[in-house]
Amino acid sequence: MVARYELIADDLREGILSGARPAGSQLPSEAELAGRYGVARGTVRQAVAVLAAEGLVGSRQGARRVVLPSTVPGTMPDAAPSAAPGGTPGAARSQSFAELHSFAQWARAGGHRFGGRVIEQRRRRAGAAEAARLGGGEVLEVLRLRTLEGEPVLVERTVYAAWVAPAVEALPADCESVTQALYDAIGLVFAYGEHLIDAVAAGSQDARLLGVRRGSPLLRQRRTTTTHEGRPVESSDDRYRAGSVAFSIRNSIGANPLARQALDLRSGRGEHMFDS
Amino acid sequence: MVARYELIADDLREGILSGARPAGSQLPSEAELAGRYGVARGTVRQAVAVLAAEGLVGSRQGARRVVLPSTVPGTMPDAAPSAAPGGTPGAARSQSFAELHSFAQWARAGGHRFGGRVIEQRRRRAGAAEAARLGGGEVLEVLRLRTLEGEPVLVERTVYAAWVAPAVEALPADCESVTQALYDAIGLVFAYGEHLIDAVAAGSQDARLLGVRRGSPLLRQRRTTTTHEGRPVESSDDRYRAGSVAFSIRNSIGANPLARQALDLRSGRGEHMFDS
DNA sequence: CAGTGGTCTAGACCACCAA
DNA sequence: TGGTGGTCTAGACCACTGG
């Protein structure tokens, strides 16, 4: 059972991606769309909310929605002026953060050849910080190396909560998709993730595994994942070889009242209405 | 005029952040919240949608909403097992990507001392790729160095579209917040952003400006920003010194029908219902 | 099976933008 | 000032979760 608003969103999305609705053009009004699709206005609003969340359209109270310009996926050109040092040659594959995806899911969706294997794996008692994050007990620490198109691109250092450890240990060392395997085995769903992204220098182990020089730049993603119920599953430190992948994110100012934010700016320091 | 649903969201958020609603606990049902706040169910749904977008609560059809565990901002502990090479010592400041913020906005909100100055600035004709992204004509290329707590942390190489170039040229070289200055000057709002994040080695210019060794890791953020109308404003290549900042993102599987995604997984390759 | 969230309707009023 | 999106109501039915 597919929701009506999803179908409408699909239809509008196709129009945008196909170029029928070019960047900068205006969408029909909600009232007109409601008439055209034969639904209530609320349903149309749900549909366009999807597109807004995807960063395809922008909206402001009082003005028609506009189609936003979008870079062709994975080929965002070098923004750097000529002064920039020699960047990575080919446009790197990019991984969207709009939804939570495992490495395998992402690679498969992008049509890449990928693999991976466990390098090291052992149980140990949770440290204080880990216990706070994952719950106490005997956590499972796993070191994995993953490849893309035959090349090693990612070193994953993952700590699994005690309650999933047995299921993880039961997996083969060359398991393609841990996420899928755990779902098949015990119905586990990685539902929510929190990510911290920064850059680090390759350590000696990183360097050896990825085939780069020690100290060379790596893109690091520290991640904590939970189930639907909010139960922590794993906490991971993933390091990508520079140039192999990039993360992509789309953003807008303010949650919905886009204009308000601009006014807050004027007040200089002012008081912040969100404490986050 | 603050919307009712915002107030309800604020109230619930405070309960979560204060610990009154601990991670893993269930939220009251929509019906009960509607009664408690004296609003219709739809209004309650808007409120919890805000919290869901912030990653504070999760929801699934048929089950009560749950409060998700959240890492204390800016202090996500080292997820890496002991095998990891010596990471950055202090927890780095983290910048959320939930909303679009300028460096100045972010630094100010975090209570940091910050500054910046223009190193180089010149007009030149747009290249082909730039013209496609920003519109043609004479773009303005600016090299800025920005500091946090007195330390240089960020090299910004920005290309401004021709139509904003005059306003940017009119700014003082040590302008604190370009975003705010441009708003004050010509009412320009940076409304939407698209970001590509990866790691690169410091070039010689980067190294000199940031006070690091050539080849040392930098966190790179390539960004294209547009107005509310979707008109491109700037395109930038920002490079952060490793350890100075991290980007933080919260995620969930699937847009709303969280369970469906899990089922799709089972079908292995299967057909993908979203072409994105 | 009862309770819950997900979808949808058909109205209403308001704040805002552009002409 | 007219059209637009933002908010809100009071209902309805359905799909799903959990005991």
In summary, what is this structure?
In chain A, 29% of the residues lie in helices and 30% in strands.
Describe it for me?
The structure is a homodimer of 276-residue chains. The first copy, chain A, has 276 residues and is of the alpha+beta class. Chain A folds into 2 domains: 4-71, Arc Repressor Mutant, subunit A, CATH 1.10.10.10; 94-248, 3-Layer(aba) Sandwich (Chorismate lyase). In chain A, 29% of the residues lie in helices and 30% in strands. The first copy, chain A, has 9 helices and 10 strands. Chain A has helices at residues 4-17, 30-37, 41-53, 103-109, 128-134, 165-169, 178-186, 204-210, 258-266; strands at residues 57-60, 63-67, 93-96, 114-125, 138-148, 151-160, 192-201, 217-226, 232-241, 245-252. A 6-stranded antiparallel beta sheet of chain A has the order 4-5-6-9-8-7. The first copy, chain A, has a two-stranded antiparallel sheet with strand order 1-2. Chain A has a two-stranded parallel sheet with strand order 3-10. In chain A, strand 8 (217-226) and strand 9 (232-241) form a beta hairpin. In chain A, helix 1 (4-17) crosses helix 3 (41-53) and helix 2 crosses helix 3. The longest helix of chain A has 14 residues, at 4-17. The two termini of chain A are 37 Å apart. Mean pLDDT of chain A is 82; it is low at 72-91 and 255-276. The interface between A and B is large, with 112 and 113 residues. Strand 7 (192-201) of chain A pairs antiparallel with strand 10 of chain B. The structure holds a DNA duplex (19 and 19 nucleotides).
